[in-house]
Design brief:
CATH superfamily of the largest domain in chain B: Alpha-helical ferredoxin
Largest sheet of chain B: 5 strands, mixed
CATH architecture of the largest domain in chain B: Orthogonal Bundle
Order of helices and strands of chain B: EEHEEEEEHHHHHHH
CATH class of the domain at 277-412 in chain A: Alpha Beta
Strand content of chain A: 5-15%
Distance between the termini of chain B: 66 Å
CATH topology of the domain at 277-412 in chain A: Flavocytochrome C3, Chain A, domain 1
Structural class of chain A: alpha+beta
Strand order of the largest sheet of chain B: 2-1-5-3-4
Number of helices of chain B: 8
Shape of chain A: globular
Number of strands of chain B: 7
Number of domains of chain B: 2
Radius of gyration of chain A: 24 Å
CATH class of the largest domain in chain B: Mainly Alpha
Helix content of chain A: 25-40%
Oligomer: heterodimer
Bound molecules: flavin-adenine dinucleotide, iron/sulfur cluster, FE2/S2 (inorganic) cluster
Chain lengths: 648, 261
């Protein structure tokens, strides 16, 4: 048997379908060249959309408005509850309402640089272009963005940029944007254009003659397995940060939809690119079930520091100014507390590992609003951040108005995901991936307030144009429900569920998930080493084998069974985790959120290796536990010349 | 606790008696079942306490308690239980944001699902709240097909109107208002959406139809009428004010009169 570390290198990815010519004209050109489906024929096409977050919600509503028949899924009891609802801080757009020198080009530049030169230029430029229209669309839907006294929209700054381009709705921007998309979707459900299946989970992809033609799903209430056939399938199922068990993601966010698609032929892009967010509430004990983000917007006014002395147990108000180390301001004077997330997280880890951390286990740094309160007054601070302060106090029983917050980095977002071309098509024709589910436009590090922008750009504007083209070009003979490919996918799903129920072992699903999560956090988290990754790659197959021997899932498959749902998702994490570690091992450079301890400068800064690694790693599945094939998509930078990122 | 830099993490744990509604399926009768639980940390959230119970039940070969949850941050609206007779429990927050420091060692805690005619029980603490989605589908939106939007700054929105809209748009659709209401009414939920959209210039063209259709849908779904008991707003984790209902009634009469004319 080949080991998982001995992957093979296959053909490079030759064509990403990005048009050439001047970058600012590429998207218009692609749209112009796209074939259109005659409006009267659209109703004859069925499109499946998995997910109702910002990406799926906006795509489902828009496709239905265009006249397609949409069949949509989410695992929650209502499409309004998708994980996007939890996004706090804001959404970027190059409106330049502040007249502070912002432009589409600057947003493009910031995003390529912020991603540490591991994203595709054409895509990022398109994203920056679409950002402007997104704000218009959301305002028209009634999204209550923050406004100035004159009635115009307010903005704020986020990490990694020097302009104020982040639009927000207090600390609930994701909620308000998602409700806008959900309401648009609701209108289409009422009109009969969207057939909505809530509490229904996609468990496999149906591929017929090389094309994605449907999905197998399970009704989470009755356990009923059903087949849904279509002309195209869109995955908008979100990110896979929950592979780490503890993350800021919603508890049931999972990788199953994209992982099953990967198993059916869709390449997986940059699986090791994970974002660890610098400002989360530290864990309080072993019972911890998830971690709570404190929005990056807090870094606009909060100052981050640790005591200069090691293991200083004095209360923060007893530590005089001269004995505090505002380490971000010290090391990065021009960006200060607003450096990109990967840099802020790593700096926190360094000071804590060095013995300066505060709180339980020394796993925390202070985020202090003392100066902000003195400068703006308590009321102004409360108006800007009140709900976040309340949430912090409810969780920690500490009052952030009088005592600095304690924060620590936590897993937050996955830049990796299904590989897609410029049209957002995966390597399986007819299967598209949008939002956090794709490997996206963020390279090796996502800037704050850019995920909401990307999800909505994909769903409202990009996918509807490119899907149109796909549907217009391909011919779609109906797939018979008794086609062997359908039967095979159904049998796979049923066998797997039955096996999970039959093991009747002695360990709970969660116990495996926690163990896997800890292993990944230690070896494939904020700092990754060759030895550590080898250790993880040795351990994961053992854990997987143990899982399939010892997991205990009570109840039956013909009812609401939350243990079965969990176990099924964990079985996918146990495969995905291995690919993440392999990807991290093969990429021996440091870039963005991927920090290889072997690739750093004398001062501890990450060292990127453009000569050997200026590519997207797209992995092809060859079987569970068997060595995958690596396909490289070379990255060309024509407009933003790669430099070592500097925020000093 | 006075621990200096060590936050308020406490080491003392609690022993509790839980009486939980167990109901296998919608057709089942269901009953309260008693469980003992030890080692509960005050820093745990209420749902983490139930996680611990469930881990234990699985190992004992029993079925864990089913409950809805997802974000565990008080924003998705998925969670919701009646705790000691109060929707979302003793604090004005969501069940997932309730922490065990609100309880004391030796307490007995009753845990039941939302109870309302329009919310049938699915299993244990899980109920079917899809009726709320259908109320939104009846008119809780502004018609603005993708691509048709004018430039965002074309219409200024006075800050007061924007703030008023936002405060009503904060509703998370959890259904606690319905569960708390003696009549199982969804007036607070419905009014929150009507007021969010009707105050905005963008929402004006559909203003009348919106309130009439949403109220009609609410009645059709089997939600009860409002008798001004005010329980809804006390239970609401997002602080949607009772005034919201009065505001919607005004919108309703305005629309009904206009339509009659
Ligand atoms: C706490 C927090 C705060 C954030 N704040 C910001 C911010 O301020 N700005 C910003 O830009 N980004 C932010 N992000 C990131 C951003 O919220 C997400 O990246 C984005 O919302 C993802 O949207 P999505 O539509 O791709 O997926 P999601 O919103 O995760 O939606 C996934 C959907 O897929 C469905 N689904 C998943 N699997 C299946 C399946 N197998 N079958 C059926 N349905 C399935 C789910 O039910 C859900 O409807 C934040 C993230 C977190 C965790
Ligand atoms: S009005 Fe309040 S209680 Fe009712 S659904 Fe909305 S948030 Fe929940
Ligand atoms: S789990 Fe989302 S509000 Fe409680």
């Amino acid at each position: 048997m080949t080991t998982y570390t001995s992957y093979t290198v296959g053909d490079p990815i030759a064509d990403t379908k990005a048009p050439d010519g001047p970058i600012a004209e590429r998207w218009s050109r692609r749209r112009f060249e796209a074939k259109l489906v005659n409006p009267s024929n659209r109703r004859k096409h069925t499109v499946i959309v998995v997910g109702t977050g910002l990406a799926g919600g906006s795509a489902g509503a828009t496709l239905a408005e265009q006249g397609y028949r949409v069949v949509q899924f989410c695992y929650q009891d209502s499409p309004r509850r998708a994980h996007s609802i939890a996004a706090q801080g804001g959404i970027n757009a190059a409106k330049n309402y502040r007249n502070d020198g912002d432009s589409v080009h600057r947003l493009f530049y910031d995003t390529v640089k912020g991603g540490d030169f591991r994203a595709r230029e054409s895509n990022v430029h398109r994203l920056a272009e679409a950002s402007v229209e997104i704000i218009d669309q959301c305002v028209a839907q009634g999204v209550p963005f923050a406004r100035e006294y004159g009635g115009l929209l307010d903005t704020r700054s986020f990490g990694g940029v020097q302009v104020s381009r982040t639009f927000y709705a207090r600390g609930q921007t994701g909620q308000q944007l998602l409700l806008g998309a959900y309401q648009a979707l609701s209108r289409q459900i009422e009109a009969g254009n969207v057939e909505m299946h809530a509490r229904t989970e996609m468990l496999d992809l149906i591929v017929v003659d090389g094309r994605a033609r449907g999905i197998v799903a399970r009704d989470l209430v009755t356990g009923q397995i059903s087949v849904h056939l279509a002309d195209a399938v869109v995955l908008a199922s979100g990110g896979y940060g929950n592979v780490f068990y503890l993350s800021t993601n919603a508890k049931n966010s999972n990788a199953s939809a994209i992982w099953r698609a990967h198993r059916r032929g869709a390449y997986f892009g940059n699986p090791c690119f994970t974002q660890i967010h610098p400002t989360c509430i530290p864990r309080s004990g072993d019972h911890q079930s998830k971690l709570t983000l404190m929005s990056e917007s807090l870094r606009n006014d909060g100052r981050i520091w640790v005591p200069k002395a090691k293991a200083d147990t004095r209360s923060p108000d007893q530590i005089p100014e001269a004995e505090r180390d505002y380490y971000l301001e010290r090391i990065y004077p021009s960006f200060g507390n607003l450096v990109p997330r990967d840099i802020a997280s790593r700096a926190a880890k360094v000071v804590c590992d060095d013995g300066h951390g505060v709180g339980p286990g020394g796993q925390g740094v202070y985020l202090d609003f003392g100066d902000a309160i003195a400068r703006m007054g308590r009321d102004k601070v409360a108006e800007k951040y009140g709900n976040l302060f309340e949430m912090y106090e409810r969780i920690t029983a500490e009052d952030p108005y009088s005592r600095p917050m304690r924060i620590y980095p936590a897993v937050h977002y996955t830049m990796g995901g299904l590989w897609v071309d410029y049209d957002l098509s995966t390597t399986v024709p007819g299967l598209f991936a949008i939002g956090e589910a794709n490997f996206s436009d963020h390279g090796a590090n996502r800037l704050g307030a850019s995920a909401l922008m990307q999800g909505l750009a994909d769903g409202y504007f990009v996918l509807p144009a490119t899907l149109n083209d796909y549907l217009a070009r391909a011919s779609h003979d109906a797939v018979e429900p008794d086609h062997p490919a359908v039967a095979e996918a159904v049998a796979d799903v049923e066998d797997r569920l039955n096996l999970l129920l039959a093991i009747d072992g002695d360990r709970t699903p969660d116990s495996f998930h926690r163990e896997l999560g800890e292993l990944l956090w230690d070896e494939c988290g904020m700092a990754r080493s060759e030895a550590g990754l080898h250790k993880a790659l040795d351990r994961i197959p053992e854990l997987r084998e143990e899982f399939w021997r010892r997991v205990k899932v009570p109840g039956t498959g013909a009812e609401l069974n939350q243990s079965l749902e969990k176990a099924n998702r964990i079985s996918d994490y146990l495969e995905l985790a291995e690919l993440m570690c392999l990807d991290a091992l093969h990429r021996s450079e440091s870039c963005g959120g991927h920090f290889r301890v072997e690739s750093q400068a004398a001062d501890g800064e990450a060292v990127r290796d453009d000569k050997d690694f200026s590519y997207v790693a797209a992995w092809e599945f060859t079987g569970s536990g068997s060595a995958p094939v690596l396909h490289k998509e070379a990255l060309d930078f024509e407009y933003v010349h790669p430099t070592q990122r500097s925020y000093a | 606790m006075t621990a200096a830099t060590h936050g308020t993490t406490s080491t003392s744990t609690m022993k509790l008696t839980l009486r939980i509604w167990r109901q296998h399926s919608p057709e089942d009768g269901g009953s309260m079942v008693t469980y003992q639980i030890e080692g509960v940390s005050p820093d745990m959230s209420f749902l983490e306490m139930l996680d611990v119970l469930n881990e234990d039940l699985i190992l004992r070969g029993e079925e864990p308690v089913a409950f809805d949850h997802d974000c565990r941050e008080g924003i998705c609206g998925a969670c919701g239980m009646v705790i000691n007779g109060r929707a979302h429990g003793p604090e004005r927050t969501t069940t997932c944001q309730l922490h065990m420091r609100q309880f004391s060692d030796g307490d007995t805690i009753d845990i039941e699902p939302w109870r309302a005619a329009a919310f049938p029980v699915v299993k244990d603490l899980v109920v079917d709240r899809s009726a709320l989605d259908r109320v939104i589908q009846a008119g809780g939106y502004i018609t603005a097909p993708t691509g048709s939007a004018p430039e965002a700054h074309a219409t200024a929105v006075p800050k007061e109107a924007a703030d008023f809209a936002f405060e009503h748009a904060e509703c998370i659709g959890c259904g606690a208002c319905v569960a708390a209401c003696p009549n199982g009414s969804a007036m607070l939920f419905t009014s929150a959406k009507v007021n969010h959209l009707n105050v905005l210039p963008q929402g004006a063209p559909e203003r009348e139809g919106r309130v009439l259709d949403m109220v009609a849908a609410m009645d059709e779904e089997g939600f009860g009428g409002c008798t001004n008991s005010g329980e809804c707003t006390i239970a609401c984790p997002k602080g949607i004010p009772l005034q919201s209902i009065a505001d919607m009634n005004r919108e309703f009469f305005r629309a009904a009169t206009k339509r009659r004319r």
